[in-house]
Amino acid sequence: MKIRVRYYNLTLDVTKIVQEEIELKDGSTVNDAVNFLINKYGYKFQQRAILTMDSMQGKVTRANVYLNRHPVDYEANYPQKMNTPLKDGDAISFGSLIGGGASEAKLLTYCP
Fold first, then answer.
1. Which stretches does DSSP call E strand in the chain?
2. How far, in Å, CA of 29 to CA of 16, rounded?
3. pLDDT-above-90 percentage for the chain
4. Domain map of the chain by residue range?
5. Which of 8, 37, 57, 71 could make an SS bond with 95 (beta carbons 3.0 to 4.6 A apart)?
6. Inter-residue contact 38 to 22 (CB < 8 Å)
């Protein structure tokens, strides 16, 4: 199956490309896709795709991975989190998705 992959901020610095399409075997999970990309881009990619943070409970590991624009770790739609099965045509993103702003750009001119 084909999966679209898009890279933002931290992972973009490693991959040097904004997006690509990868081919995985049927039945693959988000975790399989992440491991495929770690093998392709190496340890630096792993550090930026899988974040380790300090919390009140100690070190916490969080995947910086979005499936079809929703965070895999926090989204109620993905109770299996990183073990969520992928479907042909799914889109995986790495990095923070930042929203906001206008729906379309407008050119403003000043004419005195």
1. 2-7, 19-23, 50-55, 58-63, 65-67, 70-71, 91-94
2. 24
3. 55
4. 2-94
5. 8
6. no
The model's pTM: 0.79
Nearest to 12 by CA among 86, 76, 88, 97: 97
SS3 label, residue 45 = helix
Distances (CA, A) of 6 to 9, 37, 94, 112: 10, 12, 7, 44
pLDDT in tens, 10-32: 899 999 999 999 999 999 999 99
Kindly compute the dihedral angle of the four CA atoms of residues 87, 23, 36, 9, in this order, to the nearest 10 degrees: -80
Residue 73 DSSP symbol: T
Specify the residue for token string 């906001």. Answer: 100
Helix (H, G, I), strand (E, B) or coil at 38: helix
Helices (H), the chain: 9-15, 30-41, 43-49
